[in-house]
Amino acid sequence: MMNPDERPDELALPEAVASAPAGRGGIGRWWMLGGLIGAAISLFLLLQGTGPTVTLVATHGHGIGPGDPIRFQGLDVGEVVDVRLAEGSGVELDLRFRPEAQDLARAGTRLWIVRPLLSLDAVTGLDTLLGSRYVSLDPGPEGAERRSRFTALPAPPVDALDGGSPGLDFVLESPQRNGIQPGAAVTFRGVSIGAVTAVQLSSDATAVEIHVTVRSGFARLIRERSLFWELGGVEVDLTLTRGVEVGLDSLRSALVGAIAVATPPDAGEPAPGGSRFKLHEDAEPEWLEWTTPLPIGDDLLPGDAAVGESFGAVLRWKEGRILRSTEVREGWCCATQAGLIGPQDLLTVPEGAASESAVLEVAGQRFGLAELAGQGLLEDLAPGLRRIAPAAFGDQWGLLAARAVGSARSLGEPEDVLVFAAPGASPLPIAASRFTVGEGGSLAVSGGPPVPQGWHGGQVLSRVDGALVGLLLTTGVEGAPRIAPIPGAGRAR
Known about the structure:
The chain is mostly beta strands and 493 residues long.
């Protein structure tokens, strides 16, 4: 037993030992591993949030810089990340698209730098006067392959400015540039129909090539023999009360230039893309007086409208008792499901014609008109119109019916129409404003240029729904040409 007076040399205390739970490492190591995993995830998400980077080559930077946006339909879809001088000349821009817009960097996409641009009829890029420049684009076809390098357009494409479909591209040749700049307007009767997209020397440096795009809706105004000239100079009005006034259109023309076009009556066929024309310095006085009727608009008729075939018709007859003469009248007829219709003066025996001498040739057939009438195969359809019954053509009628007009209705009121005659020829447009309602519901064509020869009996189709609404009569009627309406229940709605 231990003596209470005895003191131990040192007090023995139990030793505490900390041991890690079975199966777990040190806390510090796990924190480090967790940090590495988090960093990897963050980097992965960062990389996943970055779209493709492409290079845009431009002739001029126009003050654009890193951080300026890429815009499409008013939304930011990326940004400029770098701007540098290109080898040789020009500049290169590195553009980075957002992930959701990465498909915009595809073949056929057009890009340009937006900056303030003054043209004859519009000022574009005004938002860049106070804000930054930016890159705009017009995407290529859906499904096109990705591209990493593009060439910037020198000016906004004409069709992208008005949201239309691609227009007609062609080239004007001139010995001198004479101040014409990209963006300069191309006008028809003073109305802008397109713009200059580029100006450059020809490959042999013998001429200046001016590249032009005309909006798709006006492409039919440009024909094989259309003529172009420069608009320039400044109109000055000097009076005692108002001082000096400068015409705004003239001032714009002086700044960026402008080009006018006129089309003669014998203009030929529509000009194909890539055509080349001479650019004249001035217009001849007669050019300004031409009033050639030409159709405009992206779609001449609704997409599902079908134009039936017109068949040339020739009526021959003899007149006189002793010294007989042969008379000829020509025009057009068209097939409907109810028969072949045409102008009344083509399908009626003329007054004074010798007995049994009136013969009609149409759609590959020859008919004696008196014989057809005697068999009850000719009937009056409406004032100015007659119809040959299908039975007159026998087995051939099935072939004609397959080339008939798609639909027909009456013409209840003046409306914009197109007249079709010779197969394959451009239609004759007539605006509603040129019609005057006459007797029997016929519409007289007045004002504007005269109707050319060769349209008698042409099909008149509505530009609203593509239906046949009448035939154009140009001979055998008093006064102005007129439209003889197809009888029916009224205007289709």
